[in-house]
User: Fold these one by one.
Assistant:
Number 1:
Amino acid sequence: MGSHLTFGLVIGLATYNVTWGQTGWVMLNSGTTEQLHALHFVNEDTGYVSSSTQVRKTTDGGLNWVPISVPTPRINDIQFLDASTGYVLDNAFIHKTTDGGASWTSYVLAGTCGIRMHFVNLLIGFVGACSAGVYRTTNGGVSWQNAPIPFVAGRFEFGAIRFTTETTGFAVLNFENEPNPSNAMIYRTQSRGKEWSHVHASPGSLRSLSFPASDTGYAAGYNKVVRTTDGGGHWNVIAVNANVNDVYFTSTRVGYIAGWQGRILRTTDGGGSWELQTTPAMLDLHAIFFVNDSVRYAAGSGGIILKTRTGGTTAVLERDGIPHSVVLHQNYPNPFNPSTTIRFEVSRSGFVSLKVYNLLGQEVATLVDGIQDSGFKAVEFDGSNLPSGVYFYQLKAGHFVQTKKMLLIR
C-alpha cells in the first residue's frame, strides 16, 4: 500500500455535504436504522416517515428528522392530510392528531386489526382490515362501520386500499395458499364500501395502488404493474424487471415504481417502457411519495431516505440498465461500523481503481484495481482492522477522478 492521497486534496474534500444543486437522488440522514415502510409529506418542508415502531417528522425538507411520540408500539400505516391532521394505524386502534403529532386521540376499530388505510378528506376514510373487511368513517375517525369484502376462502394479506372519490375505491388482497396460491385479487366498490366486486386476479402479489385519474389506475408488485383505463373494470398486466413495493403516478402517463435493491424506475408512456434511475444505495425501498413535479422522496430498509429535486433525473439519463457516465456515490451507511457499501457506475469497459485513504493520505485498502465492464457496481468496505476516524475513497476510471469522505465510528 505505497500510494498516497495528496494532503491538499484531502483538505479540499473534507467539507463534502448534500447540496441541492445536485441532480438525481440524494441520501438523507433519517436518524434511525429501522426499516421504513410508510412516507407522507404535506408540503415540501413538512413530512412524516414510519417504521413498525416509530414515527419521525421533518420540517426542513428532510435534512433533519426527529421522533414524535405516538400512543402505540406497533405501527402499520400513516397518513397526514395537512400540517395538523394525521393518522397512525395499528392492529386495534387508529390514532388521530390535530396538532402535527404533538398529541393524539385513539379510536377503537371495533375488534378488528387495521392493516392499510386511506382518507379521502378530513371526514371520510377507509381502513383495510385483517378480516378482509373494509371499515369506513364519515366523522374523521371517531366511529367506524364494517363493509366486508366477499372473497374466496384462503390465507391472505391486505395489500393496499385506495379511493378515487368518496364513493369509488379499490382494495388488493394477496392470497398465499389454497385455493388461490399466490393470487393477487383487486376488488372495486362504487358504493362507499357497502358492496364490493372482484375485478382482477393475477399470479404473484400486488402491494400498492395509484390512481392519477378516476379512470386510470396502477397496481404494482412482484415483477409486474397492472393498469386500468376504464375505471377499474378491466386490468392489463405489464411485466417489469423489478420487485416493486410502491407505485406513484403523477399523471396518466408519468409514474414511478420503487422496490428491492434501491431500484427506482420511471415511465413516461403509461408503463409501456421503464427507465432505471440512479440511486445512492442498494437497500430495498418500501415507499415513495411525490410533493410536486420535481420534489420526491423514497424510504426503505436500514432507515434509508432518498430525496430528489429533479424528478430523479441526472444530467445524463440511464437507459436499458447501462450508465452513460462515470458516477461515484456516497457510501452507505455513513457513519458506519464496521462495514459500508460504496456504489459507482462506469459507462464503458476499462481500467478502474477504487482505493481508501486515511487523513494522512496513506492508502489503507484497495477495493478495485483492474478491468471492469460497464454497469452499476457495489463494493463492501470492511473497516474492522482500522481505528475510528475520517477516511476517503477515490475512484479513477479513464480521465475521471473523484474522492468522497466517510466516517468510521467504533
Number 2:
Amino acid sequence: MTQVVGGDALAQMLAAEGVEVVFGIVDGTYMGFFASFEKHGIRLITPRHETSAAHMAGAYARLTGKLGVCMASNGPGVANILPGVAVENGEGNRVLLVTSCRRTPIAYPDRGGTYQYFDQTGVTRAMTKWSGAVPSFERLPELFRRAARISWSGRPGVVHLDVPETIMNGVFEAEGLDLRPPEAYRRTAAIEPSASQVTQAAELLRNAERPHIHAGSGVLHARASSALEEVATALGAPVTTSWAGRGALADNHEQLLPIWAMEPIKKARSEADVMLVLGSRLGETDWWGKPPYWGKPDEQEMIQVDIDDEILGLNKATELAVLADAGAFLSALASELRQSPLSDQRLQTNRARTASLGPKSALNSTKRCKTRGAQCTARRYRPRADAFSATTQSTCSTAAMRQCGRVSSPRSTSPTRCFRPSSWACWVQGYLRLSAGKSPSLTQESCASSAMARWAFTSKSSKPHSAMTFPSSTSCSATSSGAW
C-alpha cells in the first residue's frame, strides 16, 4: 500500500494549481508540508514577519495573475499574519492562506487549556472570502478544492485553509485520495463577454463626444495592460485608474491622468458623457462615482465590466453591465474597434481634448540644471487650490528647485510629508545631505517602490542654499532618513 504525508498531498495540489512559490516562516507544525515543496517544484521564500508573507503573496498574485500562497503556524504565527490578511483581502488580491492548528483531539473545540490555541477560522472568517478547517485527511482534497474554487470566483480576495498538525505531518494511506486537476473542479477559462455587448459598447464609445476610460485592479489581475493601451489609443480617450489600479497603464503614457492630477481627473470624469469602467468597484477612493467628481446620472452613461456580478451597478447606475474578464472584454473591444474605427474627425477631437487634460497640462515645464556636480530635475506645478497640490508645490518641487539653485533661500517649516508616484522617484537625481538639524533635507525613501515614492522635507535653518553641501555622486536608492 502506498502511503503519503498529509502535507505532501497538500503541496501536490498546490503544484497542480500552478503554484511555484509559497511565502512563510517554517515551523514544526507543518514540517510535512514545506518539506515536500522541492519535489513538487515549489520554492519557499521566508520573510522576517508573517504579515510580510501575506503582502508578498498578494504582490505575487497581482504581478503574475496566479494564486499567491502564504503560510503561518498555529497561534502566534496566525495572529501575526492577520493584518496582512485584512489588507490583501481589502485590496482584492488572490491569496490562499494555509495555516496549521493544534491536533484534532484538542482543537475545534478547545479542550480547555490547549497551548497557543484560538479559533483561527472564526477570527479570519470576517476578513476573508472563505475560511475553513480540515477535520480529517480524507476531506483535505475536498476543502482545498472549495478554497481554490472560491478564490477564482468573483472578485479576488483571501481564502483560508486551516489544517491540523496531525494531518500536516501524519502519514496516511494514499489509496482513494481524490486528487483532481483544476479544470475538474473550477472554471479555468476567462469569462468571455457576449458579442452583442461588445458591439453595443463599441457603438456607445464611437458615438461619445467625451469618452473616458477608468481602469481598476481587475485590469492588472487580467494582465490586460496591452489591450487597455490599444483600446485607449483607438478611442483617443483619457484614462484614469483607481488607487488599486495603478500601473494598469504606464505612468508616462500621454493619455493617462495619474492619480496626483486631481483637478484634471475631476474635470475629465465629470465632463465625460460615456464612461468605460473596467474591473473597479467605484469605491470610496473613486468617490463612489458620484457628482461633482463624476458626471450626473442623467448626463453620463456608464459601461461597467467586472468578473463579479455583485459589483455591476453597485455604486453607479450602468447603461451596459458586462459580466466578463477585463482582459477578455478589452481584447474583444480592441478587435471591434479595429474593424470599425472612429472617424478621423472624432478621433482627432478626442485626442485634442485628452491632450488638454493630460499630464502636460498639470506640469508647466521640465528644467534641468547642474549644481555642485549633482544633477537634478525640477518640475514646476501649475498652482491649484487643493491642499494636496499646495503641499506638492510648496514642499517637494520647491525643495527640488532649491537644489537646482532656483530658489534663493530655504523655507523654514516643520517637517512635512509628501507622496509622489513611484515612477517619478528619480525626478531629483541627487538629494540634500544635511548636517543634523542645521539645514533642509529631501530624502527619497524608495526609488523602486511598487506603490508610492515617499519624500520628506524638513527645514530648521535659514542658511542660504549656497552654504548647503551636496553628495558628490547621485543615488536613487536612498532608503532611510532621520527626517522620515
